[in-house]
Amino acid sequence: MRLRTILDIYHKELDALYGKQEVDSFFNLLIDHYLQLKRIHIVVDPEYVITKSEEQPLFEALSALKLEQPIQYIIGVTDFYGLTFKVNTHTLIPRPETEELVSWILSDQKGNESVDPLQIMDIGTGSGCIAITLAKKLTNARVIGMDISEKALELSRENAISNMVDLSFLQGDILNVTRSDHLLNHKLDVVVSNPPYVRHLEKAEMQNNVLNNEPHTALFVSDDNPLIFYKAIGEFAKDKLKPNGLLYFEINEYLGRETMTLLEQQGFKNIKLKQDMFGKDRMIRAEK
Ligand SMILES: C[S@@+](CC[C@H](N)C(=O)[O-])C[C@H]1O[C@@H](n2cnc3c(N)ncnc32)[C@H](O)[C@@H]1O
Fold first, then answer.
1. Given the CA of residue 98, which atom of ligand 1 is nearest to it?
2. Whose CA is nearest to atom 7 of ligand 1?
3. CATH code of the domain occupying 77-287
4. Residue 149, SS3 per DSSP
5. Residue of the nearest CA to atom 8 in ligand 1?
6. Tens digits of per-residue pLDDT, 248-268?
7. Domain residue extents for the chain
8. How many Å apart are CA 284 and CA 211, to the nearest integer?
């Protein structure tokens, strides 16, 4: 079949759901991923024909898109900070806001000439996007990624290998930390976390492709205790950080002030709230 004909079918079946522009960008991503073809192929050669076996993944992806499955789960990979990460339904799809959090940490560490390795822990590591990017970019860092989900950790280990970085992963529940694991006995320079922070009352604002596909243990907290992870991670960081060590959080845009107050009460100093590219309160840095 002509590739152009398949694009026409995509538009016919999906434009009402996603809009024309997004359907074009899905199609470009899919032909690049499955066929290593660029959009220009359709432009310069509208008669370009692909084989039956080449068509198959494009039609499978079309069915998945009709069910509002995220494109990143369909192709199984996504880009984060210029690196490629495998993702599946056990891991949150890394977001651009989280790239901004990583960028903040990297710029704070720029020019850090310390001869001692920088000890970093990422709590709720998921795909490993934060931990692996920090390990890749900060060559003097020793990074530990922790998550409650063994399935997520399987994938973050694979991502560490494919990105050729050496770091440690640890299965654990930050709400019930047991002191037994030796990885928890290190003193840390940096603790970072993008924990679950969406309240159930915010579900109405969420898109179906997020709500129906991404893992709820990665997303949701109860309406009456939305800072549960921030409180636990703050206490953990207070205990584990070296003097003047830094704690970085991605936060719920509606709870910036409350999260800052919590960290003040826990005794952190120099607490700074930062907005993301959309102007929303999205990140906090605090010093022990
Ligand atoms: C919002 S996702 C963040 C994933 C990844 N760090 C990112 O930024 O894309 C939160 C992560 O916290 C993990 N998590 C949930 N409850 C946890 C707990 N009690 N202890 C440790 N990790 C937990 C989830 O499995 C999920 O991977």
1. 8
2. 94
3. 3.40.50.150
4. coil
5. 194
6. 999 999 999 999 999 999 999
7. 3-67, 77-287
8. 26
